[in-house]
Structures are given as C-alpha cells and as structure tokens.
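Quick one from the shared queue. A colleague (R.T.) flagged Branched-chain amino acid transport system substrate-binding protein as missing a structural entry in our internal table.

Convert sequence to structure tokens.
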Amino acid sequence: MPHTTPWRSRALGATLLAVVLTVGTACGDDGSGPSASGSIKIGLLASLSGTYQAVGTEIRDGFQLYLDTHDGKLGGRKVDLVIADEGNGAQTAVPAATKLLKQDRVAALTGIVGGGSVAGVTPLLNETKVPLVGSNGRPELKDVSRVWHTSYLSDEPGEAIAQHVRDNVQGSVYAIGPDYQGGWDELRGFTDTFGKIGGKLANADGKTTFTPFPATTNFTPYFARIKASGAAAVYTFYAGSAAVDFVKQYAQSEIKDVPLYAAGFLTEGGVLNAQGEAARDIYSVLNYSPDLDNAENRAFVAAWKAKHDGSPTTYALASYDAAAVLDRAIGAAGNDPTPEAINTAIGQLGQIASPRGTWQFSTTTHSPVQKWYLRQVRQDGRALSNTVVGDLATVGR
C-alpha cells in the first residue's frame, strides 16, 4: 500500500503572515452560499467537550488562524463561521451536524474529531449535498463523493511506521489501544502491515488488546499482561486524556523500560505537557511536526505562536489546511459558490503547498497522499518536544 510519489512545489495563493491579525468574521444570511453582502457561511463541528476537548479546540483554533491571517475571508468572501460541539462521538455529533446543515444551511462543513462521527454524518452530507472538508482521521468509507479530509485515514499512521518497527525491534511487539472505531483502525493499520512484512505480535491470541473506551483510566492490569507476554516493544494509539493516563502509568510500571512506539497523537500537543518526563524517548509517527524546515511551516508556526502558547499540533495544521482548501475551492467556484460548485472545485485543486510539505487529495479516498515522519520525544531547550528523527513512507491510496 505505501508508495512514493515525487511532488513539485506550488506556492499558496496567499502569503502567510508571520504576525497574526485579529479580524472578526462577517455574518451572512440564513441561506447557504454567499449573501448579498458577499459573505459565505461555513460550519465547524469539533469536540469542544468530553475526552477529546483538547483536540477539538486545536481544530477550531487552526481554522480560525487561517481566517485571522487572511482578512477573515475564504475565496474572497467574508466568512460567517458557525461552530458546534461534536461531543464524544456520533450520538452527539449527528444532531449538531443536522442543525448546521439543515437549519444554519452552511455552504461547507469542516472539523470533526471522531471517525465514528464522520461515518454518522456522511448520510447527511449526501442528503443536503454539502461537502465536508474534515480535519482529523476517519475510517475508509464506501461513498466519499462529498467527503474530503486534510489529515489522514485512521489506519495510515500504523501502516507508515510498521517497517521501521520491524527493522528496529528484535522480538515480538504488543499491540494495545482503545475499543472504538478510531482505535480499531489505528491498530489495524499497524498490525496488518507488520504481519505482512514478517512481524510477530506478542499478544496471547495474536490479536490487538482493546481497552474499554472511555471507561478505562487504570492501565496497570494491561501492563501486567504485556510483561507476561515477553514483548520486546509496545505499539499503541491513545489520544486526549486517555493518552495522559496511559503514558504516566506506563512510566511508573514494570514495563517502563520496554520501548514504546505510537501513533503520534499519544504525545501530541497539550497532552505532552501533561505527561512531562513520563513521555521522554517515546517514538511516534505523524504527518507533521512544528520543526519541519520549509517556508510555509516557518510562517505558520510564527503566526500560531503570536496568538497561542506553545507550538501548533497536527490537529491545528490539518484544520488550517482545511481552510486553505476551502479558500481555493470557493475562489474557483465562480460567482455563485454553491455547495455543489465548491465540492467540484475541491476535486480539481491538484497539489497543495502546506506547512507539512506538499500533498494532494487521493482521487479514490479523498484523503491526502503525504509523507509521514518518525519523531521522538526529546529535550528542546527547556521543554520536551516531538523532534523529527527521520522520514518514513509516503502513504496514500
């Protein structure tokens, strides 16, 4: 599945600003598309409460940063940004999306943290003919005609790091993660690829151990199982508050010296600050790091730091790129940027210059074909940071 594709650079349509300008968004009318004043209504759905509140906040702030650095406009039109809370999953995400799509009548939808939420919302997109430019992981879907993602498919991080783990771990690997759609996808990406290249799982039944979600806060019993398995390393995916609990308890456990590999969300953003020294030396795979050396990233990081404490995360980056995609698509959709016209324009964008490096949408999955990076939690001045230590596969379907 991994393959390498040469990219050529292409400049963004607007120069990123190093200093953030705070600009208010304009209010449009109650209909989708532009109003008489030339504004356009965009819906942003993200977890602003619950387990993944920190992730949802980054998604909201990443999109807002793009607006702030582009005069509050997308495609030359002032944006009326309507924000709704996704909560902990599809049960709360679907009603919130229904309001955005049917009552607020947004021209496009963005955000969404949970893969299960995406699956739940997709039928609504087809019913209302509104495109989603999502900015977090999602599962593979049968119908992606109105579904686009600037982040990744949820099985791709594990797929991208599997060869590295196989090459660098002498022995079996224990796989563990949360028991819900995102966890199933994230761990399957690793275990399927790892098995195909000759890797062996240390789990007693040869299958991933899944922990109840969101109920599991004590991981000590699972660490005892890992110890008994004789695993030479552990591969995992957790995010949000669950990631903090897992990492802190791991560092105090009887397996603290067993190397820990993970999808990058385990140590991404504010959770790394909460984990502190417990996270030191953890290896992770991700499509972004704030220390990437390119012009787009330097401008993006400077703009983020002018407005926020700390460095931007992959969540903020993907949402920022979602705004960039909508900026170009709305601009290309003509004088009447209807949801259908915007959706068509997204499919014609081609390569996109980004702080993560140049990427483009897959024509089959509508998710990015992009490079993945190996990172390690290391000292960076007075703080710990996810430092890029190597390139992994370029993945896309």
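The chain has a mean pLDDT of 89.
The two ends are 7 Å apart (CA to CA).
Added to the table.
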